[in-house]
Amino acid sequence: MAFCFSFLYLMKKSEIRFSIALDDNKVPEAISWSATDAGPDIHFAKAINIALWDREQAGTMKIDLWTKDMPVDEMKRFVVDNIGFMAENILTATDDKEMATKMRALCKELSDYLDKQEQGQ
After folding, report:
1. Is the predicted pLDDT of residue 5 greater than 80, yes or no?
2. What does the H/E/C string look like for the chain?
3. Where do the structural domains in the chain lie, given as residue ranges?
């Protein structure tokens, strides 16, 4: 499975290409990516989370993939990190400080929860 995203930004074209290696049950075994702005190297990841706003449907389309060797604790951190990034994104894009603050508070609460889980192991 492979998919590619291109962004047109002031007439400059950038591409991000993802390649997903699947096992016989179609479970991701490896995720690699490259980008025109990241140099010629191929990079590897354990998970990707992509959200697109569909103009015609006026709704969110999501792709969430992770390799079968990604530990559960890393997956949880990945999700919490994404909430933090979304808080910064909503502040930058809309200047909605209240929404960003609430998202950051949730991120902090979940991060504290994960810290306690890790200490209990």
Report:
1. no
2. CEEEEEEEECCEEEEEEEEEEECCCCCEEEEEEEEHHHCCCCEEECEEEEEEEECCCCEEEEEEEECCCCCHHHHHHHHHHHHHHHHHHHHHHHCCHHHHHHHHHHHHHHHHHHHHHHHCC
3. 1-69, 71-121
Q: Per-residue pLDDT tens for 10-22? A: 567 888 999 999 9
Query: Which residues, 6 or more positions from 1, have their beta carbon under 8 angstroms from its beta carbon?
Result: 19, 20, 22
pTM assigned to the model: 0.79
Name the residue type at position 68: K
Label residues 74-108 b or e (16+ Cβ within 10 Å = b): eebebebebebebbeebbeeeeeeeebeebbeebe
